[in-house]
Amino acid sequence: MEVNVKIIETTDEKAAVLAIRRTVFIEEQNIPQNIEIDANEEKANYILAYVDGQPVGTARWRETELGIKLERFAVLPHFRCHGIGKKLTRFILNEMNSQKSIYLNAQESVIPFYQKCGFQTVGPKFDEANGIPHQKMIYLESE
């Protein structure tokens, strides 16, 4: 399975990003739309992962007062466990030419995945996005 990742450039690509997030977060994880579609939509940079020309995964990053925050990683159910999340993560990290801290708030179930990508947990676990357990993670090293 060949996976291609790119920064979005068009309104159609942004619509694909939102469709993937709607499927994964709103429909699958029951996160309310007003939490998932947030005030940071226009401030963030977005990427899409494609398989055979079909958008199957997405993520975004944005600058905050704490550094660069990676967020909204989503892969459609039938395309999980094929390395797409890893490719999305690597793509963003390769885009970062910054001395700023890189961090994310990981759902508890994917903490081991991000640890394999060079992130380390910091601080206590907390509930976010409709009561889903999360933990802050910071990027420390390359794989």
Short synopsis of the structure:
The chain has 143 residues and is of the alpha+beta class. It has helices at residues 11-28, 33-36, 84-95, 111-116; strands spanning 3-7, 45-51, 54-64, 67-75, 102-107, 119-128, 132-139.
Question: Can you tell me about this structure?
Answer:
- The protein is α+β, with helices and mostly antiparallel strands and 143 residues long.
- The protein has a single domain, classed as Aminopeptidase.
- The chain contains 4 helices and 7 strands, in the order E-H-H-E-E-E-H-E-H-E-E.
- The chain has helices at residues 11-28, 33-36, 84-95, 111-116; strands at 3-7, 45-51, 54-64, 67-75, 102-107, 119-128, 132-139.
- The protein has a 7-stranded mixed beta sheet with strand order 1-2-3-4-5-7-6, sandwiched between helices.
- It is globular, with a radius of gyration of 14 Å.
Descriptive key words:
alpha+beta; seven-stranded mixed sheet; 143 residues; 7 strands; globular; Aminopeptidase; single chain
What is the name of the CATH class? Alpha Beta
Number of helices: 4
Radius of gyration: 14 Å
Integer tally of domains? 1
- CATH architecture name: 3-Layer(aba) Sandwich
**Structural class of the helices, strands and pairings?**
alpha+beta
Shape: globular
What share of residues is helical? 25-40%
Main beta sheet strand tally, sense and closure: 7 strands, mixed
Termini separation: 22 Å
* pLDDT < 50 stretches: none
At the fourth CATH level, what is the homologous superfamily?
A: Gcn5-related N-acetyltransferase (GNAT)
In N-to-C order, the SSE pattern is EHHEEEHEHEE
CATH topology assignment: Aminopeptidase
Spatial arrangement of strands, main beta sheet: 1-2-3-4-5-7-6
Mean of the pLDDT scores? 93
